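Lab notebook, bench 4. Continuing the backlog of folding jobs that were queued last week. Each job is logged with the same field layout so the records can be merged later without manual cleanup. Today's entry covers DNA-directed DNA polymerase, a 724-residue chain. Filled in by technician R.K.

JOB TYPE: sequence-to-structure
TARGET: DNA-directed DNA polymerase
LENGTH: 724
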Amino acid sequence: MVFTIDFLDDGRVLEWEATSDGPVVNERTGYTPRLYIGPRTPDENPDFDALEAVFADHPDVAGTERVSRRPGFRREPESVLAIDVVHVDRVTSVARQAQQVATEPVGDLAFFNVDLSREFRYCLETDTDPTPGDALSTLELAVPLPETTGDAYRELTVDDETVSGSPERVLGAVQSALEATDPDVLVCSTAEIVPTLYRMAEAAGLETFTLGRWPAERGDGISYQQLAGNSTYASYGQVGHSPARYNVPGRAIIDESNTFFYHETNLEGVLDLVSRSRKPLQELAWASIGNVLTAIQIREAHDRNVLVPWHSWRHELPKSMATLHEADRGGFIFAPAVGLHENVHELDFSSLYPNIICTRNVSPDVIRCTCHRERSDVPGLEYAICDERGYLVDVLQPLIDARDDIKVAIGREREREEPDPDRLEALEGRSSALKWILVACFGYQGFNNAKFGRIECHEAINAFAREILLEAKTTLEAGGWRVVHGIVDSIWVTPDPDIDEPERRDLETLASEITESVGIRLEYEAHYDWVAFVPQRGRETGALTKYFGSIAGTDEYKLRGIEARQRSTPPFVETVQRECLAVLDETRSPEAVVDRLEREIGRLYAGRVDASQLVERNRVSKPLENYTQSTRNVAALERAREQGLTVHPGQDIEYVVVDDDKATRERVALAHEPIERYDPAYYETRLIRAVESLLSPLGWDRTAIRRELEGAREPKLSAYTGLE
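JOB STATUS: finished
OUTPUT FIELD FOLLOWS
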């Protein structure tokens, strides 16, 4: 089957298949991508004749046609205008021109199927399955950070072999590897490798150098194409960076600096989503979770003859003030009881939000339907849900079922006497890929730019979730268990000390009863010897997602929210925190933990910690010129600029703090620089904060930790009474 698709300037399309006998390319002519124009509302009657006249002789339009399509899930088929475009790269420009000429006499128009990514569009319109039929071969190309600027690389790693020297030597190594392996996929540390290698080849006069499979000597060959430039964006308060994207004919590119699913899963996980979304490998590799979820939804819409809106225009339906107040509450939260709790059990609802969608039929096309407006199907809200099965159920139920089957397969593989590690890795990659899609499906319903989202769905899912979690809490407490924390889809319980053991009901029995009652499986997730819930800094209330605990019967710990789980934490600080956690587990003694901390602080001041273990990684939120404070990030950015390195907002910068008292670029050293010293006082503070996270559930803050370190322990009452 086709695994990557190239579009030539003359309109031809190249379909590439990976077979056991090598790559096969098929040329296709006459492909004309299609966009649609229709009335924004059913009662509109636009003058399509005027639009057709405008585009009759348009150089980018191959033709127009009146067809019947559904402009939305809640609408019946209507007459719309289809415009066939001569090249996939001209669709958006034609749509914008149509917007400009769609003046008032034409009518209030809506545009559809405009902003689909080009390979995905091709697969959708031609019914092409981009799932590879055979295993794909890969070649990895990586450059170190200092080499990422300039017009030439002096060092480059090809798979596991590092090549350095002249541009001719580097290019020769790449070309030899391509000829030897003929990879289907290029896994690049940065996609900028593609244009840089071509610039190097041009400067060296190597006309035959090529990364692709469509040779330039054909006369119609292409070296590479730039699909998009780099950009910075903001999402949920976080600044991100999207690197430029490139294409080489006949091979898919995975840019490791711009791929979520490849990092969070593996190639098997990515390919599983390819088969479900019909979004080809290269596009899926750079796509976000929401982008892939949307592609799966678009497939379902396409099967139902529903068009994809260019710009979402769904308005929020009117609701009473009481309903608005109730709807805006969010999910279930039972604040954690700060402290260290012994004998804790965790129970989780399996894919709670996706299962709420499927079991309660929560979907944009059926929520608040007019045919049952007298009903209040959503608890606490005045929302009716139509009896007709919603399209979102058909999108998610196969994903839920598939992940359940994969989890069963993983369990069986692990139970084998000799599990197959490759099969396990593939199964876990597929499971993880589906997990991320299911996690996102709830939030995406409330996303303003979602193609098919609806805020009422988001509110209804939360309302059902609150009811389900409260019912579970009530049942567990009636069975003799005390809830110490609950959030979204998880509940932690300990035996209620006021209930005698014979009267306490079995947890798995209670979970089965709750499952039967709510229609969603409540799973026994884990048993902990103890769990500690961490308070918010400077407060007595518990942090909702910051806890750690010892998993019963193992030497493992579950960590959430503390420094060892934070991406910016230096490896040394993480290691020390984990070691101190083991001491706490063994002794339950804050003093013993501080003793261990003191040893590690001594190593710091003795200069016996390798600088590579002190590297911090922080995300840059804005350009250097926009910072007003002299932060460590600013110092690192100044050093990077001094060395000719470009770090965009949304990208990470890595450094070691060498003198935190300074406010200049001398405050830090970049991770790739030779580092001969570091600031022990700064890293001592980092260590104390990490240990505070462990000891704060026991009432110790950083002041108490420093006091213990200084040997000024508060005298115990027994010192005055002589009693122990």
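OBSERVATION: The longest strand covers residues 522-535.
SIGNED: R.K.
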